[in-house]
Amino acid sequence: GKLGRYPPWPGKIVNPPKDLKKPRGKKCFFVKFFGTEDHAWIKVEQLKPYHPHKEEMIKINKGKRFQQAVDAVEEFLRKTKGKDQASSHNSSEEKNRRNSSEERGKQSAGEEKRKASLSEVKVKKGTGEGKKRVSSVSSERGSKSPLKRAQDQSPRKRGRPPKDEKDLTIPESSTVKRVMTGTVAGFKWPPSVSEPVKDSDPHFHHFLLSQTEKPAVCYQAITKKLKVCEEETGSTSIQAADSTAVNGSITPTDKKIGFLGLGLMGSGIVSNLLKMGHTVTVWNRTAEKCDLFIQEGARLGRTPAEVVSTCDITFACVSDPKAAKDLVLGPSGVLQGIRPGKCYVDMSTVDADTVTELAQVIVSRGGRFLEAPVSGNQQLSNDGMLVILAAGDRGLYEDCSSCFQAMGKTSFFLGEVGNAAKMMLIVNMVQGSFMATIAEGLTLAQVTGQSQQTLLDILNQGQLASIFLDQKCQNILQGNFKPDFYLKYIQKDLRLAIALGDSVNHPTPMAAAANEVYKRAKALDQSDNDMSAVYRAYIH
After folding, report:
1. Strand 257-260 relative to strand 280-283: parallel, antiparallel, unpaired?
2. 11-81 architecture in CATH?
3. What is the pLDDT of residues 350-384, one digit of tens each?
4. Which 3-state string (H, E, C) describes 401-467?
5. Which of 238, 323, 521, 540 is the most buried (most CB within 10 A)?
6. What's the mean pLDDT in 188-202?
7. First to last CA, the chain
8. What CATH number should be reported for the domain whose range is 257-416?
9. Which residues of the chain form CATH 3.40.50.720?
10. In the CATH scheme, what architecture does the domain 424-537 have?
11. pTM of the model
12. Which of these ranges, 142-151, 153-162, 492-501, 524-533, has the smallest mean pLDDT?
């Protein structure tokens, strides 16, 4: 049951043990992996032909175990070659029709005659379970978990016919490069009541990272709002899809949801929770911000304590460590509403010490705690395309599944409380430093007589090209600094990231330099503008 750093892996479809139930949802097959004794349920969409991808996979994967697996495949082919030759008069269409009846799966009519029942199974996309024993399909949480352990699927490129299921491979996500040692169990969101066969949201990308062992980082994927687009080279990339097109299949939790804090991020999150059918009670320090959401169907909470006491799971998204502490510990605060079984999810970006302190006081009252800071901006929040970094109570993380699907494209579970805070600060440290570098380059171009637009055009043609780079440069070129991510908050995150480095005596000179530039921008009254307004700190 150990999940190592495995490449796409060859396997063959076999009959499952009689006492092993087939997972509900999309059609899947029971696959035995060559070179190991591992088995797993694999969805049709995660399988591809062995032969067309063989050479490419051998080039990519040089490991000894992978070569042994390929050798086992070739040996299997030699043994079955005679049988295939004897049946060569059968057309591929006849085989496909027969397979459809036997395996209850969709087949491709124009497939080449298969030489064996072979498949390559790639662990890194749509599943965290590819290389694991059947005995570990039921995870440590057992049947009590609200998420059924099973393989999830990766959506096939639109218009592409399904492959012959006997000769298939799981595609890889270009964003998930490493799967290191550690046990892992597969998950599948419970199917919709109205659509019993359809996964509730087939495009949510969901990772479970266990950091209990030193090198252990285990990935678990449940896709959301992502289209897997295969290029001619056979490689795969992940692109964001229109959130409204796929969100309709989310089955909202029947738990009552509370939400505290309706800022740039919180507003978009609450809108998406309401759109997906969740029951939400809202509270904000300035009550007038609640009005719009009351019109959309939200309920109004008078105090944080009241929201927590009347809801099952309460989320909060506020500005900084002080605000997060005041919200919990202040008068009529969250803590006063906590009693055994109440759940609190803090989505604020704060330091690990703050979130650990909050977790302790919540748990001491019998509550359950999850930290879940989000990576993104106002636009991504509105679009339901945030990246959620969670840590703490694993069961609560699972209970939040429909909420996370509504608000985000990806969620990561990072283990114990504090891990998500640290990771979030590191992510924002990189982003803030990069933003300052962009501003530095654009201003240097200007003062040396170079075209800023041409600089952007050049960068967009190179390896640095990204949505972030283009959007922030456009903001600067247009002089539009309407906040998508407040400058004062990215400076706060840089400050906290530098303090994190201090706590472990790790140098952060790039972040320190960027932090000074943001402080200069704040002195120039840019705090409530977008982070791209750091540009103004460079103008003489």
Report:
1. parallel
2. Roll (2.30)
3. 999 999 999 999 999 999 999 999 999 999 999 99
4. HHHHHHHEEEEEECCCCCHHHHHHHHHHHHHHHHHHHHHHHHHHHHHCCCCHHHHHHHHHHCCCCCH
5. 521
6. 41
7. 61
8. 3.40.50.720
9. 257-416
10. Orthogonal Bundle (1.10)
11. 0.61
12. 142-151
